[in-house]
Design brief:
The structure is a single chain. This protein has helices at 20-32, 51-61, 76-86, 105-114, 132-148, 165-171, 181-188, 211-225, 228-256, 264-298, and strands at 7-13, 38-44, 65-69, 91-94, 119-127, 157-164, 192-199, 307-308, 315-316. It has 320 residues and is α/β, with parallel strands linked by helices. The strands form 2 sheets. A 7-stranded mixed beta sheet has the order 3-2-1-4-6-5-7, with helices on both faces. A two-stranded antiparallel sheet has the order 8-9. Helix 2 links the parallel strand 2 and strand 3 (65-69). It binds uridine-5'-diphosphate and magnesium ion. The site of magnesium ion has 5 residues, from loops.
């Protein structure tokens, strides 16, 4: 049997040369007081600065450091996914490289895990040194997500979290492309709890989440957990058709009441509305089917087994 690793720390890295030495130092400091063996898995997401060389030098001097170099930038969520795929630990912690999530919080997460929780996510009670715009958009996004989706994605949590091996094994079953990891983590269930922390300023460097990447993440979050956007056409089409019907009746009664002839212009307007409404409803119906196709294509597991009893392989959830 190969060496058992207690904790895997997954750290996505994109152009973080300024922070890496400090990140490494702080992670070592924290993990060496964690009572257990650990590995630090750095996922270099196609950095174009000196990140790769710096990480390679860590890996050369330290057996606990593992490095995954991507061939190009694939994005934060995919970097996390790769880290989870390679992690061997009994518990896996995902944390940003920029020290905005204080590594010391990992120790509290580990305590909760020892109490029996399988997912411990960090909940930001305060965000330091981030622009008003960032805080506003983030807060708006989390609330929008809550309204739109059926699963319960906790408000104000990022990807900073600890997951038991069982949860990580479950997440490995998801191979969908446009992924929103925190949504998937909620989706899989298990015993979840939070620890609160103050989100710090970036240690150095700029945010690597451009507005474009942020919008993509938000859109992935909503579209991978909700089919509501597909239903918008129906919601618009039904009232439009009804409205045209009402208008038609009004004009008809006016005509029958003997007030003038049936006005051709209003008829054209009414027909226009009606046809528009019917087209929208038809689009909405197509949307329903596309929604179902989308559900199937994602190929998510139907259920995740937490544990079984009475079968040959007892106890743990059977994923292999
Ligand atoms: N990151 C990544 N790939 C990307 C963008 C970001 O791996 O395409 C990493 C980045 O190095 C950091 C983490 O993801 O460790 C979070 O990014 P960042 O701190 O820039 O986001 P913010 O905290 O501003 O939301
Ligand atoms: Mg950050």
């Amino acid at each position: 049997m190969e060496d058992r690793v207690d904790f895997s720390v997954v750290i996505p890295v994109y152009n973080e040369e300024e922070v890496l030495p400090e990140t490494y130092r702080r992670m070592k400091e924290v993990m060496s007081s964690a009572r257990g063996s650990y590995e630090l898995i750095f996922v270099n997401d196609g950095s174009r600065d000196k990140s790769q060389e710096i990480l390679e030098s860590f890996a050369r001097g330290d057996e606990a450091v593992k490095l995954i170099n991507f061939s190009r930038n694939f994005g934060h969520q995919v970097a996390i996914t790769a880290g989870l795929d390679y992690a061997k630990g009994q518990a896996v912690i995902v944390i940003d490289a920029d020290l905005q999530d204080p590594p010391e919080v990992i120790l509290t997460m580990i305590e909760k895990w020892r109490e029996g929780y399988e997912v411990v996510y960090g909940k930001r009670v305060k965000r330091e040194g981030e622009s008003f715009f960032k805080k506003f958009t983030a807060s708006f996004f989390y609330r929008l997500l809550k309204r739109f989706t059926t699963i319960d994605i906790p408000v104000d949590t990022g990807d900073f979290r600890l997951m038991d091996k069982k949860v990580v094994d479950a997440l490995r079953l998801f191979r969908e492309k446009n992924r929103f990891m925190r949504g998937l983590v909620s989706w899989v269930g298990f015993r979840q709890t939070s620890v609160e922390y103050v989100r710090e300023k970036r240690w150095a460097g700029e945010t690597k989440y451009s507005l474009r990447k942020m919008l993509k993440l938000a859109w992935d979050g909503i579209t991978s957990f909700s089919d509501k956007p597909l239903k918008i056409a129906t919601y618009a089409g039904i009232p439009l058709s009804l409205f045209s019907l009402v208008l038609f009746l009004v004009v008809l009664f006016q005509y029958l009441g003997g007030r003038g002839t049936f006005p051709a212009t209003s008829l054209i307007g009414i027909l226009n509305l009606l046809v528009g409404g019917i087209i929208l409803i038809a689009l909405g119906i197509m949307g329903e089917y596309i929604g179902r196709i989308y559900e199937e294509v994602k190929g998510r597991p139907l259920y995740i087994v937490e544990s079984t009893m009475g079968f040959e392989k007892e106890g743990e959830g059977d994923f292999d």
